[in-house]
């Protein structure tokens, strides 16, 4: 059964909603209250795909998401990088000079300090970004604006008084697109370019220097590891699980050899997904020289 829907966490107009529109413009976006609800919607067949944020270039990884991925029963089939562009949204016809307060999630308030200081605007903490836009629209108070995505302004009928007001112009969130079924087929990314990412979790065996030895196979086989993060399992300090992203496909000879070597030093290894690299990866690498 297919629904042609993609589930995301948050209200309509959230940055996760923007990610759905950017990565799957032909699908209906389904808002959900929590990350768990997003996963459950896909597992129950209410949506075909899940859009889940995993990390932000400014604030690091999204809390708890790495615990949910291995237990979700879903498989990563794509990734999407979304630039966090922040707009100042107000009731139609309101001039910027009339705005005295701006509501948003505390994270976004912290990203627009320069603009707000320049215009004498005071921050008001809201539950989330799109929800703040909805509140501004519902209250009808002209002096209160919202800091949110341009999409939120479109959805809630607000004017965009200023765009891209974030202090850091490279703020980007990485999302994972997840499905009930894995898809390991080689395929180009949205820009028609080659390049695959393999994501997996593993636990090392209880032997000296196990992690060092486990990582050795990637170095000797020339496999680039773009991410390695550890986190506790079940709240026990001695039970550590690792999440890793590598460049390449398990069918590539060097990746296959590296994963085989990894297996000698791990008690568990689970591939979460094999998917095309987002075109922004290559662009960021070029920008870094």
From TrEMBL:
Domain of life of the organism encoding this protein: Bacteria
Residue stretches making up the ACT domain: 199-276
Pathway(s) where this gene product acts: Amino-acid biosynthesis; L-phenylalanine biosynthesis; phenylpyruvate from prephenate: step 1/1
MF term (GO), any: prephenate dehydratase activity
Keyword annotations of the record: Amino-acid biosynthesis, Aromatic amino acid biosynthesis, Lyase, Phenylalanine biosynthesis
EC number, UniProt record: 4.2.1.51
Signal peptide location: none
Keyword check for Cell inner membrane: no
Sequence ranges assigned to domain Prephenate dehydratase in this UniProt record: 5-180
Catalytic activity from the UniProt record: prephenate + H(+) = 3-phenylpyruvate + CO2 + H2O
Cellular component aspect of the GO annotation: cytoplasm
Pfam families the record matches: PDT
GO annotation, biological process: L-phenylalanine biosynthetic process
PANTHER family linked to this entry: PREPHENATE DEHYDRATASE P PROTEIN, PREPHENATE DEHYDRATASE-RELATED
Protein name (database record): prephenate dehydratase
Species the sequence originates in: Paracoccus jeotgali
């Amino acid at each position: 059964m297919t629904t042609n829907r993609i589930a995301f966490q948050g209200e309509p107009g959230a940055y996760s909603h923007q990610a759905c529109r950017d990565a799957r413009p032909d699908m209906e976006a389904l808002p959900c209250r929590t990350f768990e609800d997003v996963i459950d919607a896909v597992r129950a067949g209410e949506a075909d795909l899940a859009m889940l944020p995993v990390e932000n270039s400014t604030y690091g990884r999204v809390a708890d998401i790495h615990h949910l991925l291995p237990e979700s029963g879903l498989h990563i089939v794509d990734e999407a990088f979304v630039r966090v562009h922040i707009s100042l949204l107000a009731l139609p016809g309101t001039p910027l000079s009339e705005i005295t307060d701006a509501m948003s999630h505390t994270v976004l308030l912290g990203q627009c300090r320069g603009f707000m200081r320049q215009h004498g605007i005071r921050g008001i903490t809201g539950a989330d970004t799109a929800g703040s836009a909805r509140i501004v629209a519902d209250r009808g108070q002209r002096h209160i604006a919202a800091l949110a995505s341009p999409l939120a302004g479109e959805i809630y009928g607000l004017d965009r008084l200023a765009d891209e007001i974030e202090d850091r112009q490279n703020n980007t969130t990485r999302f994972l697109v997840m499905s009930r079924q894995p898809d390991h087929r080689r395929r180009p990314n949205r820009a028609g370019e080659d390049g695959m990412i393999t994501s997996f979790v593993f636990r090392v065996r209880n032997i000296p220097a196990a992690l060092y030895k486990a990582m050795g196979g990637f170095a000797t086989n020339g496999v680039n590891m773009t991410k390695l993060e550890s986190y506790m399992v079940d709240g026990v300090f001695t039970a550590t699980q690792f999440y890793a992203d590598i460049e390449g496909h398990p069918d590539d000879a060097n990746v296959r050899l590296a994963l085989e070597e990894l297996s000698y030093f791990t008690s568990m290894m689970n591939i979460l997904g094999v998917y095309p690299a987002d075109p922004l990866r290559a662009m960021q690498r070029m920008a870094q020289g």
